[in-house]
Amino acid sequence: MATSYMDYTLPTTQFTYDVNQNQLFKKDENNYINSLSIKQLNTLGNASLLDIYLSTGNVVEPHIHQNATELVYCISGSAVVSLINPFTNELLNFPINPGQVANVPQGWWHYEVATVDQTHLLAIFDAPVPEAIFGSDILRLTPASVLAHTYCLDENKVKETLAPIQKTVFIGPPADCATQVSPAANNMPKPNSQPNVQPNVQPNIQPYVQMQYAPSPEYIYPDPMNPTYGQNPNAAYVPSESDYMPYTVQRPIIGNGWRY
After folding, report:
1. pLDDT averaged per 10 residues, the chain (length 260)
2. How far apart are CA 74 and CA 63, in angstroms?
3. What DSSP state is assigned to residue 190?
4. Between β-strands 119-125 and 48-54, what pairing exists: parallel, antiparallel or unpaired?
């Protein structure tokens, strides 16, 4: 629970809210998203949600949440939650049915695809207001010249391909998509063969994500980087080879999986 400085005696204190009254995005009658955050319910702590309705083949577009982990709960229907694990550089697909969940760590690239009509998902976040960066915005706001130069592409073809993306998509394909086709089963994300097994982890070897630096006891004193401090304050400390640890082990791993 987040520390709250709210005066709960005020008449403006809110304990209930109708999420149906706060629509974030609507593509059509079968595909829309309602939202709830501390902006609508001021007694919320570190919690918020998106109430998502999808029909077959519709996609909550690829995006990241830079400030929150997302827990996707399937209320009805069926969907595939796909994400890229930044530690293994693998695309993982997790089918979920009613009562099942898939968890997306903070900052991980992900998307959801409905595999049947009348799919209802609840996305729950550990932040009072979830933030997001959408793939459609990355594509439409990055200059075509930069994309073409960086990835050795034909700039004119990049411009032509991305020209229809004029705003944030949220749920794709857009309602005015001229090339829409009915979704086929073989176009749906394929589930992982072993969805509950960490990929690319050798037996009896800890995954890379678990390699976090724990300082040795001699480095928890008043001046950890200069053990001669007090005797010779101007002495420079140069660690010996035995004290040196590789950069990837020294740097802590932040919550979203990307190092800073």
Report:
1. 77 96 98 97 95 98 98 98 97 98 98 98 97 98 98 97 96 85 58 51 41 40 42 43 41 39
2. 19
3. P
4. antiparallel
Written as one letter, the residue type at 26 is K
How far lies 47's CA from each of 107, 197, 215, 218, 251, in Å? 17, 29, 34, 40, 29
Tell me the pTM: 0.72
Amino acid identity of 214?
A
User: CB–CB of 140/134 below 8 Å?
Assistant: no
Biggest distance spanned by C-alpha atoms of the chain: 77
Helix residue ranges, H only, 108-235: 135-141, 144-151, 155-162
- Name 9's Cβ contacts closer than 8 Å, sequence gap at least 6: none
Cis peptide before 173 (omega within 30 of 0): yes
Q: Distance of alpha carbon 60 from its chain centroid, rounded? A: 12
Rounded CA-CA distance 58/113 in Å is: 6
Contacts 24+ apart (CB under 8 A), 254-260: 255/69, 255/105, 255/106, 255/107, 256/64, 256/66, 256/105, 256/106, 256/107, 256/108, 257/85, 257/86, 257/87, 257/105, 257/106, 257/107, 257/108, 257/209, 258/86, 258/107
167, 170, 175, 178 alpha-carbon torsion, rounded to 10°: 60
